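Render this sequence as a predicted structure.
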Amino acid sequence: MANVPANLKYSNDHEWCRVEGDVAVIGITDYAQSQLGDIVFVDVPTVGENIEANEVFGSIEAVKTVSDAFSPVSGEVIEFNEAVEADSSLVNKDPYGEGWLVKIKMSNPAEVEGLLDAAAYEALIG
């Protein structure tokens, strides 16, 4: 069973979101990393760009596949996790902690309310 922390919000695309003031910390869920397998590279070319909710902000490359990463909220990508750039396996080891991907300064914090809570996300992944 995948780990689904109750304090986070989730997207249908398997990203999680933790709100810290007007900044959203975003990563992929434990379920998503387990489905992808061993992650070998994370590419986020969007730092400094404004992106819309559900827009691709980067890609996650695993041994057998490449998956787009979608932003659950709109805003400016203000930071990429450099630790993940140096060691992409952090996303597999600690998806909700050291394996976070980006921080986005939200342009519309109310979008968070439209995301799934832990119970709804658990129902989504079965």
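Summary. The chain has one domain: 9-108. The helical segments are 30-36, 82-86, 90-93, 118-125.
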